[in-house]
Amino acid sequence: QVQLVESGGGLGQAGGSLRLSCAASGRTLSPATWAWFRQAPGKEREFVGAVTRIGWNTFYTDSVKGRFTITRDNARNMLYLHMNSLKPEATAVYYCAVGSPRSVAVTNDYLYWGQGPQVTVSS
Fold first, then answer.
1. Other CB atoms closer than 10 Å to residue 51's CB: what's the count?
2. Distance separating alpha carbons of residues 66 and 93, to the nearest angstrom
3. Contacts of 41 (CB under 8 A, 6+ apart)
4. Distance between CA 101 and CA 15 in Å, rounded?
5. How far apart are CA 109 and CA 121, in angstroms?
6. Burial label, 21 (beta-carbon count in 10 A; 0-12, 13-18, 19+)
7. Per residue in 83-114, pLDDT tens?
8. In terms of Cα–Cα distance, which of 37, 46, 18, 53 is closest to 96?
């Protein structure tokens, strides 16, 4: 089993920055793909970005490219989401996830999920 515990988030302002952290514990997680998803009220959970298990390649959904950055610390089993130039539409519950997906953006391919802290961006 793997436990994912997220921290950070909260209230941010448009144009500002927030950072989310995800700490993993349990069985070894390497190699694995780590990802961030988010779910806004009344909407389906959507892919934000991921860092792959091989090559540390990063992928982002178009709406956050250039503003959000995912970093990963394998030694500490930590994943981070650095969110810059925030927009109100970033308001959502954010989840970190770990798995071996066929495609990084496929929600159901991730086996382990964090609890999902709320991020609220005011205009």
1. 20
2. 21
3. 92
4. 32
5. 29
6. middle
7. 999 999 999 999 999 998 889 999 999 999 99
8. 37
